[in-house]
Amino acid sequence: MTKVEMADATASLSAYARKARKEPVVVTLRGKPVAALMPLKGKDWEDFAVSTNPKFIALIERSRARCKPGSGISEEDMRRRLRLRRKAR
Prior knowledge:
This protein is 42% helix and 17% strand. The chain is α+β, with helices and mostly antiparallel strands. Helix 1 (13-20) links the parallel strand 1 and strand 2. The model has no long low-confidence stretch (mean pLDDT 90).
């Protein structure tokens, strides 16, 4: 991982993006991380797009608020109800 202080980040964005193909580039402000460049491969793009979507995050939060701890079903019970086999490890 490469760390670059924001004040020292004078290269072009494309230069940092090329570097990020090999390893994450973290931009810091007074030593604290504020941004990162990292490669997005395959499903990573979909994960990123969903996890940063405000509407999706609000949906998850509403769902969590409605489901009290201990009131859900176990993974095993869900798999049984949906007739799914457990994945081999």
